[in-house]
Sequence to fold (129 residues):
Amino acid sequence: MKKSKINPFSNSAHSERQITIDPELAEVLEMQRQAFHEKFGRKRGPGDPIFFDPDADQPQFRSEAKIKETHDLMCDAMLAAGIDPAKVYATRKTGLLPTTDNLQNLPPGGLEEWQDAIREYWSKEGLIQ
Fold:
């Protein structure tokens, strides 16, 4: 069951969903808070992105091109590290990287899409019929 509460600082009376943040995520969010303050010289406001473009003069999300570039670099690093090329192909194709820790966070059908991409890779390689 989802927990809800009313935010006393909100301008509306809508309930907000509460989530549990593990220590690792809390650390990432704190690093982003610090990076935002260092970059823009102020606290992050309600309309500002948590994960922002560090090259922009004003707070904004990263462009799709920058996100794709970062994703491609990650996939290249995965190949260089010896990760199974079929898994790298599936990650490139789907944008997903399933792990035992994040399976519950995948979109509906995400794991099946990723597994289909692995089968597609092996089919293209002629290793499965």
